[in-house]
From TrEMBL:
Record Pfam families: Lyase_aromatic
PTM annotation: Contains an active site 4-methylidene-imidazol-5-one (MIO), which is formed autocatalytically by cyclization and dehydration of residues Ala-Ser-Gly.
Family membership noted in the UniProt record: Belongs to the PAL/histidase family.
Cross-link (5-imidazolinone (Ala-Gly)): A143-G145
Intracellular or extracellular location(s): Cytoplasm
Catalytic activity: L-histidine = trans-urocanate + NH4(+)
Organism: Sporanaerobacter acetigenes DSM 13106
Gene label: hutH
EC number: 4.3.1.3
Keywords (A to Z) from UniProt: Cytoplasm, Histidine metabolism, Lyase
InterPro entries linked: Aromatic_Lyase (IPR001106), Fumarase/histidase_N (IPR024083), HutH (IPR005921), L-Aspartase-like (IPR008948), Phe/His_NH3-lyase_AS (IPR022313)
GO molecular function: histidine ammonia-lyase activity
Protein's UniProt name: Histidine ammonia-lyase
Metabolic or biological pathway, per its Swiss-Prot or TrEMBL entry: Amino-acid degradation; L-histidine degradation into L-glutamate; N-formimidoyl-L-glutamate from L-histidine: step 1/3
Modified residues (2,3-didehydroalanine (Ser)): S144
Length: 507
């Protein structure tokens, strides 16, 4: 059976994807079980001694100075969940919800949260049995954690809220009963332990960064085809050029392009047709490479966050509870804003290449890539649509992390807006994928019009797959269907997987 064992310390991005997209089962390690039980025993000692500890024997936020008696601890935790369930908007996608549950379980498995093992196992059972809480996409400030959306996750654990089970949306209690999962009566610290973290923003962002790695490679593929369609100059990709400015993304992009274009009869060298290309071709290593370096930075931050304890207070073995700020989403907020900008740039330069393809003054090809222009509009509005998407991305790329609105009567006087940053990055990713799909379609049309004299070892693979699903456009057809086909080829990684299978990994 395919499974992932979690201990709070070693979860990888690839394992995360296996659980959320391939339904791998999740188990706690033996070490994690011991740590969780030890941490819980400390919390129970605090309660028995009526020690003043935030969130255990006190209220929350501005109410941190209000003491709660031992007899009221269960009511306190239930009230926390039901009062904080203030999410609004459309439900988050199933894969995001699965990611949220996995990441929250992994954080609790570190053994610093004081939750009961039985409660943690309930969350893992929900994940393994495909009980997916309905979690609205909006309502988190990204500091004090993702309080509102995570509260919706916990509602189902206590037999409230709503969930998807067996493809049907239903009351949370019914879903738990159908899945044969006992519901939980929360006790001291548990409600806070479950909702006080960054797992919503991190799940959204982790999925986005994983897909961004592949999209950046596909940007190299689509641009290689465009380079051939425009008889681009490969001299600019010479390794010597990039070794003297050794940014890794730049070096790797130049290597990718030379690998993809190896053996092509469509490209040229410096001085053969012209001395140099426009920036959208000549500076591909620098532009794509910078985005790849940004994506790699975000991946590094995500790998840290998915193995972090992000709630408050944290319970340490020295029988110490420390109130800190690990729930604050700023490290993720800045990272996901950066990711959005990097993805927007991949789309920006792709749209510029589309313009070069459709503009006869720049391409030497029939206007708008159609032979009977005037009667036919060809790819005219493809470029319009690409321009609309990149313009929308420019609006979305405005950083969420520079904004903050104080909350909880100014006790929480700086917040990250990290969940908004993650959602924006995901939206930009979706737009960028569509723009690259348009370039893929346009470049293959341009190659056909130019006359395919033999493509590179890698680019020919991409061309052949596109042509397996689309045809050269002679007369106007309904274009969105063709764009959607190319987008699905990118989204499914069919092109990328076949290229890497035949010519080796891209960077």
């Amino acid at each position: 059976m395919n499974k992932v064992i979690i201990d709070g310390n070693k979860l990888t991005l690839e394992e995360f994807i296996s659980v959320v997209r391939k339904n791998y089962k999740v188990e706690l390690s033996n070490e994690a079980v011991e740590k969780v039980e030890k941490s819980r025993s400390i919390v129970e000692k605090f309660v028995d001694e009526e020690k003043v500890v935030y969130g255990i024997t006190t209220g929350f936020g501005k109410f941190s100075d209000v003491l709660i008696s031992k007899d009221e601890t269960k009511e306190l935790q239930r009230n926390l969940i039901i009062s904080h369930s203030c999410g609004v908007g459309e439900p988050l996608d199933e894969e995001i919800v699965r990611g949220i549950m996995l990441l929250r379980a992994n954080a609790l498995a570190k053994g610093y949260s004081g939750i009961r093992l039985s409660t943690l196992n309930t969350l893992i059972d929900m994940l393994n049995k495909n009980v997916h809480p309905v979690i609205p996409e909006k309502g988190s400030l990204g500091a004090s954690g993702d309080l509102a959306p995570l509260a919706h996750m916990v509602l189902v654990m206590i037999g409230e809220g709503e969930a998807y089970f067996g493809g049907e949306r239903m009351p949370g209690k019914k879903a738990m009963e159908l899945a044969d999962i006992p519901m939980v009566e929360l006790t001291s610290k548990e409600g806070l332990a479950l909702i006080n973290g960054t797992q919503v923003m991190t799940s959204i962002g982790a999925l986005a960064v994983y897909d961004s790695i592949n999209l950046a490679k596909m940007a190299d593929v689509s641009s290689a085809l465009t380079s051939e369609a425009l008889n681009g100059i490969v001299t600019a990709y010479d390794e010597k050029v990039h070794q003297v400015r050794p940014h890794s993304g730049q070096i790797n992009t130049a290597r990718n392009l030379l690998k993809l274009l190896d053996g092509s009869n469509m490209t040229t060298v410096q001085g053969e047709l012209r001395v140099q290309d426009a920036y959208s071709l000549r500076c591909l290593p620098q532009i794509h490479g910078a985005s790849k370096d940004a994506i790699e930075y975000v991946k590094e931050k995500v790998n840290i966050e998915i193995n972090s304890a992000t709630d408050n207070p944290l319970i340490f073995n020295e029988e110490e509870a420390i109130s800190g700020g690990n729930f604050h989403g700023q490290p993720m907020a800045l990272s996901f804003d950066f990711l959005g900008i990097a993805l927007a740039e991949l789309a920006n330069v792709s749209e510029r290449r589309i313009e070069r393809l459709v503009n006869p003054a720049l391409s030497g090809l029939p206007a708008f890539l159609v032979e009977k222009g005037g009667l036919n509009s060809g790819f005219m509005i493809v470029q319009y649509a690409a321009a609309a998407l990149v313009s929308e991305n420019k609006v979305l790329a405005h950083p969420a992390s520079v904004d903050s609105i104080p909350s909880s009567a100014n006790q929480e006087d700086h917040v990250s807006m990290g969940t908004i940053a993650a959602r924006k990055a995901r939206a930009i990713l979706d737009n960028a994928r569509k723009v690259l799909a348009m370039e893929l379609l346009a470049s293959c049309q341009a190659i056909d019009l130019r006359g395919n004299k033999g493509l590179g070892k890698g680019s020919s693979i991409a061309y052949n797959i596109v042509r397996d699903h689309t045809e050269k456009i002679e007369d106007d057809i309904i274009m969105y269907k063709e764009i959607n086909k190319c987008e699905e080829l990118i989204k499914s990684n069919v092109i990328l997987e076949e290229i890497e299978k035949q010519i080796g990994s891209l960077y």
